[in-house]
Amino acid sequence: MAIRLLTLCIGLALAPVAHAEVTSFAARSGRADAPVLVVYSSLDQPIARPMIEAFQKANVDVAVRYEDMLTGEIHDRIVRETDGGGKTADFAFSSAMDLQVKLANDGYAQPSRLPMSARWPDWANWRDTAYALTFEPAVFVYHKPSFTEKAPPATRAEFVAYLHAQGDAVYGRIGTYDIERSGVGFLFMSRDQEQFDDIWSVVNAMGEAGVKLYSTSQAILERVADGRFVLGYNILGSYAADWASNHPEVGIVLPKDYTVVMSRIGLVPQAAASPDLGRRFLDFFMSKEGQTILTRQLQIPAVNPDVAEGNTASTMRELLGGQLKPVPVSPGLMVYLDQVKRARLIARWNEVLRLQ
Q1: For 161, 190, 254, 267, which has the most beta carbons within 10 A of its beta carbon?
Q2: d(CA 260, CA 319)
Q3: Kindly report the CA angle at 263 between 45 and 269, in degrees rounded to 5?
């Protein structure tokens, strides 16, 4: 059932774009002088469109300027515009949890005390300033035709045992993120190191199996789908699920020992030109209506505890309980931005892989 729930998720494009892609949504009222809500977001505009249109249906006199850009660009632009004494976005939505929390911790975001604030999960709310708005697990993906006689690995210990048992048969047929180039890959590896004392045995086994490293989910999933790879490790579940729904050869496992869950964070910048509009959009995003749209139309797992049916954090927690390990929205995330610690983790990762 957990896998069926996860396969409701939609693919979220992770390939970088060179510049912000801007889309304007005119106010439904037709007012030429309508106030404009400015959004900086790493979520592709076609995926975000149902949320924007629903917000405008409830706010007919508001136009929207939606700027789709890379996560690092969102952070840097808000800092640059704020430090320059100008105005910036009214709402920022990004999958870079560490960079979003850094904005909040460094004073680049303002508190937004909203109707749902007190009821939002503690792990998903930092000082009513930065809110986790989605619930996206890291999963194992596998080539179903390669596992007709046995079940795929369901824990990291089983993953290692499988690689050792298969030996040359799976050499060069394992994929995961390159943690030097993939922000989500680095986040997942960092959480692995915190959750699993023996994580380096997993990295060692992948190295012995000739693991291939990529910066995007698509590169791994397309190779699992056509059988070039038998397994993918720590793949963003929302993206993997889209492939599973369109490619029946792709299977998904939520690791039973523990499943890391990342989130996309929303906040209202301190230097927002129209903070009331940003706060209104955040309020809609957190509402039962907004989160229902998130899970049913955007098909991304929702956080709101009032949205309990289908693809939601509440349903997953009910089914999987303590297996799920969501990344808390807190200043602890900024440890992943510490360049010394980052360099140390990447160096060890490369060294363990290079030794094989």
Answers
A1: 267
A2: 15
A3: 65
